[in-house]
Amino acid sequence: MRVSHVFAAVAVLALATSAVAQTPTPPARSPWRAADGVTIDEVGDPQYSTFSLCAIDPATGQSGAAVTTRVPFVGRAVPWVRAGVGAVCTQASTMVEYGVRGLDLMAKGVEPKDAVAQLLADDAGRESRQLGMIDMKGRAAAHTGKQNSFWAGSRQGKNYTVQANIMVGPEVVEAVAAMFEATDGTGMPLAERMILALEAGQAKGGDSRWGNLQSAAIRIADPNDPGRGNDFIALAIDVGEHAEPVGEMKRVYYTTQRRLGYRTFSQVEGPDVIELKRMLHAVGFWRPSLAAFPEAPAVPNTREMQDLRRSDPAKFEQMQGAARRAAAEYTREFASFDAETIAAVDAFRKDHKLVYAGNPPGLVDDRFVTALRAAYLGKRRGGR
Questions:
Q1: What is the pTM of this model?
Q2: For 253-277, how does the pLDDT look when each residue is reduced to its tens digit (9 = 90+)?
Q3: d(C-alpha 197, C-alpha 299), whole Å
C-alpha cells in the first residue's frame, strides 16, 4: 500500500521557524529558553532530549525517521530522510546540520558507522551529542556522548536503529525495538510500524521529564512517490505540541491514510476494508481457500513515468489508464464491505466472544480491531 503525502501541522507550527536560524547565539552562559519553549545551550545548540527511530523497508525502498520528546516542534530539528539514501536522527545537544551532512555522506556510499565518525571527528561538543543513522542496505550506527543524561543509549537491529536519552530506563529502547521487530513481515506500512514502536516506548514511560510541552514527528521518504513537493517525501506528520503527541500522530496517520480503526464500518469501501479482509483471511475467517491475499495493483508514479509523461503523453495515458482499470477491478473485489465480509466479521466476533446484545451485524469497533490485530500479529509471528 502506497503511503500518500501528508503534512499535518498542529496548532502554531506554521508560526515556528528554525530556532537555530531565528535565535541569536547568546553569550557563553547557562542554558536558556527560546520563545517557542526549546532550551538552547550555552553555545547556541537546541536541546532535543528524546527517543527516536530510524528504519528502512527493503520491500518498498522506503526510509523513515520518527521521534517524540517533551520539547515542542521536534520535527524541525531531529528527523531527516532522503529517498534512496536512508534516515538520520540528530538529538540531545542537537547539531541540526548533522541531518543533511549525514545523508550526504551516505549518498556518497559512506557506511553509517564511518559517517558518524566523520561527523564527530572535529566536533568539540561530541560528548553531548546523540545521533543515529541507517542506509538502504540496512546498515545502522549510533553515537551517544558521555555527557548525555540518564538513561541514554541505543540499539540496532534488522533494518533499524533506536536511540534515546533522558529516559526512565533502558526498557523504553527495548520496547521500541521489540515492537518494530514484532511487526516485521506483517505487511504493515513502514510508517505504521514506526508509530506503533514509538507508542510502545511511550507506554514504558518514555522521557523521564514532566511537562506539557510535548511533540512528535515522522518522515517517510519513498523513491517511488514524488510527493506533493516532488521531493519524494511521501509522509510528513508534525505534532508540534500535544498532551499525547504519539497518540495524536497515530490518529492523524490512521485518518489520513484510512487505516483500519479510524472509523466504524457500514456499507462502504476503501483501503481499510482491504486491510480488514487481509487480516480476516490470515486468521481463517474470510476466504480461507485463497492461498495468499492478493496485493493491490499500483498506479505507477515513478521518476520514469514522470519522464514518460513529458516525452510520450499518449503512451503515459495508456499505461495509466490500464493501471487505473486494474485498480478499480481490485477495489470492487477486495475493498467492498459486503455481505460476505459482514459474515466473516460476525464469525470472528463470535469466536472471540465479542458479541453483545444490540450489536448490529458486521460491527467493526475498537474492541474488534484490537482483537483482530492481536490475532493477526500472532498468526504472522507463529508462521515464521
A1: 0.66
A2: 988 887 887 776 665 778 899 999 9
A3: 29
